[in-house]
Specification:
Helix content: under 10%
Strand order of the largest sheet: 1-2
InterPro entries: NUDIX_hydrolase-like_dom_sf (IPR015797)
Organism: Vreelandella olivaria
Number of helices: 1
Structural class: mainly beta
Mean pLDDT: 85
Largest sheet: 2 strands, antiparallel
Distance between the termini: 22 Å
Strand content: 5-15%
Protein name: Nudix hydrolase domain-containing protein
Number of strands: 2
Length: 47
Amino acid sequence: MSASEANVLEIAAAVVSDPDGRLLLVRKHNTSSFMQPGGKIDTGKLP
C-alpha cells in the first residue's frame, strides 16, 4: 500500500426522505449536531 492509499477514507451516506420532503437524520451519542446516516466503510464491507 502506498502512502497516498493509506490516506484514503471510504464512507457511505444515504438520503432518506418521505413524500412530505422530510429527511431522516441521525445524531451520535453525546453530540448536538444532526447528520445524514452513514459512516466509514469497514475493510471487506460494501456500502
